[in-house]
Amino acid sequence: MSLLNADGWFLSEPNEPGSERPRSLRRVAVWQVRDDGSVVGLISHPRGPHALHTTPTLKIPDGERRSYYVHWDDLTAEEQKQHLGADS
Predict the structure, then answer these.
(1) What 3-state DSSP class applies to 56?
(2) Which of 26, 28, 56, 87 suits a disulfide with 9, CB 3.0-4.6 Å?
(3) How far apart, in Å, do the first and last CA atoms of the chain sit?
(4) Can you tell me the distance from the alpha carbon of 86 to that of 1, in angstroms, rounded to the nearest whole number?
(5) Which of 88, 14, 15, 6 is nearest to 51 (CA)?
(6) Distance in angstroms (rounded) separating the CA atoms of residues 25 and 34
(7) Is the pTM value of this prediction over 0.85?
(8) DSSP H stretches of helix in the chain
(9) Angle at 2 between CA 31 and CA 69, to 5 degrees
(10) How far apart are CA 35 and CA 57, in angstroms?
(11) CA–CA separation, 6 vs 15, rounded Å?
C-alpha cells in the first residue's frame, strides 16, 4: 500500500432530501493505492457534535450513496462558492 497527494480533490456526496444544497463536498486527504492496484480516496472525518469523542480521522467513502470524486477545477463557479461558504 502507498499514499499519494490528493490536492484539489473532493468526495461529492448527496445530502438528505429537503436539504439546502443537493450535495456536500468533503476533501480527499490522500489517495491510497492498495496492494491489488485499486485506488481509494481517504476522506477527512467531518466535524460534528461528537468530533471530540470520535477516534477515526479518515474514512473510506461509501460507494452505495451515489458518491463520486471530483476535482476543484471541475466544479462550477456556483459549486465552488457554495463549498467555500459551507460549515463542513
Answers:
(1) coil
(2) 28
(3) 29
(4) 33
(5) 88
(6) 24
(7) no
(8) 77-84
(9) 15
(10) 22
(11) 23
What is the residue type of 12?
S
Cα separation of 53 and 32, whole Å? 25
Cell 471530540 belongs to 52
**Could you give the C-alpha distances from 63 to 48, 55, 68, in angstroms and in order?**
22, 22, 8
CA–CA separation, 13 and 27 (whole Å): 11
CA 45 to CA 58: how far, in whole Å?
A: 5
The whole-angstrom separation of Cα 33 and Cα 12 is 20
Q: To 10 degrees, the CA torsion angle through 62, 65, 70, 72?
A: -100
Q: Are 27 and 84 in contact (CB under 8 A)?
A: no
